[in-house]
Design goal:
Helix content: 55-70%
Strand content: under 5%
Distance between the termini: 37 Å
Number of domains: 2
CATH superfamily of the largest domain: RNA polymerase sigma factor, region 2, helix turn helix motif
Largest sheet: none
CATH architecture of the largest domain: Orthogonal Bundle
CATH class of the largest domain: Mainly Alpha
Oligomer: single chain
CATH topology of the largest domain: Rna Polymerase Sigma Factor, Chain: A
């Protein structure tokens, strides 16, 4: 990240401290306002505010796509670099969230095509070279009081993560963008480049497949219903 920050400051003029934007003002600005001020005024603090808002969610989106912590981190840095390089030509035609997730999603597709998608064998496999290291699942589920991820090793949580990982790539992608990133069907359709009806269909099949894979937990879930037959098409 240090190299990225140095590169970032090298591309933008230094700010006059007396003209810095107050933290309260940054909080009140929309993503699009922040990006616009970064583009037009070189306000590095505006870009830093965008990173603070979206970096963690982007990372976990990439991590759940690749199931590879190192690759997810590389793709995150690539995504942020693309945002920096594309800033001069950015326009407010779409929400910043839609734009940045389109970049992240395209990078995962490119990585897979180039054979760099190093999928781990199991969500319980340790990340990195240390055989005693923390397993991937501990980095992807649960949240602490400050909103950051924490270890939550309940059996149900592990099963849910495994069930999500077993979805087809198309279904998993839509499910994650909808349920973990809270994007609308229209936004997801724009990111992926298909119709909104196709997105809704993939989401429906994803939910059906998840219900089937988690059927043995239905009795323990409030208002649980019998699983419907799973369809594996996108």
């Amino acid at each position: 990240m240090l190299a990225f920050v140095l590169m970032l400051f090298g591309r933008r003029r230094p700010l006059d401290p007396s003209g810095a934007i107050h933290a309260e003002t940054l909080t009140s600005l929309t993503d699009e306002d922040l990006m616009e001020r970064y583009r037009d005024e070189g306000r590095v603090e505006c870009f830093e505010a965008l990173i603070a808002r979206h970096e963690r969610r982007l990372y976990h989106f990439l991590l759940r796509h690749t199931q590879d912590a190192e690759l997810a981190n590389d793709l995150l840095q690539d995504t942020l670099l693309r945002v920096v390089r594309s800033a001069p030509t950015w326009t407010r035609k779409a929400r910043f969230t839609t734009w940045v997730y389109t970049i992240a999603r395209n990078l995962t597709v490119d990585a897979a095509r180039k054979g760099k998608h190093r999928r781990t064998t199991s969500l319980d496999a340790p990340v990195g070279d240390d055989p005693e290291g923390r397993p991937l699942v501990e980095q992807t589920i649960g949240s602490s009081e400050d909103g950051f991820d924490r270890v939550d090793r309940t059996e149900v949580a592990v099963r849910i993560e495994a069930a999500i990982a077993e979805l087809s790539a198309e279904q998993r992608e839509v499910f994650l963008l909808r349920e973990t990133q809270q994007l609308s069907f229209g936004e997801i359709a724009e990111i992926i480049g298909v119709s909104e009806n196709t997105i809704k269909s993939r989401m429906r099949y994803a939910l059906e497949n998840l219900r089937l894979r988690l059927a043995d937990y239905a009795a323990d879930i409030p208002a649980g219903t019998d699983p419907v037959a799973a369809r594996h098409r996108a």
